[in-house]
Amino acid sequence: MNQPTQPFSAGNTPSESNAGGRRRTPVMIGRIVICVILAVIYMITSFIYSHTFVSLLAVLSVGLVAGAVSLPFMGGWWECLTRRQNRILNGVIHLVVVGVSASFVFLGMNYWGADASKAYSAELDVVQIGIDKHRSHSRGHRSVTIESFYMFVANEKSQVRKLRISRDRYNKLASTFHLGGKKVKVQLNEGMLGYVIIDKF
Q1: Quick one: residue 35, left, alpha or beta (phi over 0 = left, psi -120 to 50 = alpha)?
Q2: How much of the chain exceeds pLDDT 70, in percent?
Q3: Are 82 and 90 in contact (CB under 8 A)?
Q4: Backbone angle region of 196, left / alpha / beta, with phi > 0 → left and psi within -120 to 50 → alpha
Q5: Which residues contact 167 (CB under 8 A, 6 or more apart)?
Q6: What does pLDDT average to over the chain?
Q7: How far apart are alpha carbons 37 and 40 in whole angstroms?
Q8: Residue 74 dihedral angles phi and psi, to the nearest 5°
Q9: Per-residue pLDDT tens for 63-85?
Q10: Taken in order 44, 129, 161, 201, is the CA torsion positive or negative?
Q11: CB 122 within 8 A of CB 188
């Protein structure tokens, strides 16, 4: 004797479940794409900032102003990605995305728009040198330590920047750094927006 088949309750039918999964897939892809793009933009912006003598306040101000001005025009774009009609959450996401993008454009214009013919040599004070150690796990679960070398340099306005250097250069600086008053020759240039950039070092 055949048992009666229980009907599917609303929202639990296979067709509705599959449809819900298909709707969520583009949203997840959109979130991943935006996160990846934002991470790449942030890394490039951080690199340019480390080679530009500009105050952090100026960069943050550009990002906040751009985000605040464009906030009324964000529409429902972020609701499509968050799947929530939460204006605070969507507003914060908008400020972060637009702020990082605006900072990238601001620093990028100054950095890449510099006139190479106006480059000049200068000396910067070496404030500090050091080693960053990162542990990574390779195959076989062996821990490998990766070292990267850096120096902090300062200009006449006491603006400090962290620059990555080679092992050889680090060793040369370390051999005489304890004597004090160490300087390095670099090539500077005035950016498109007037902020000095470290071109070569």
Answers
A1: alpha
A2: 81
A3: yes
A4: beta
A5: 147, 149
A6: 83
A7: 5
A8: -75, -20
A9: 999 999 988 877 666 777 777 77
A10: negative
A11: yes
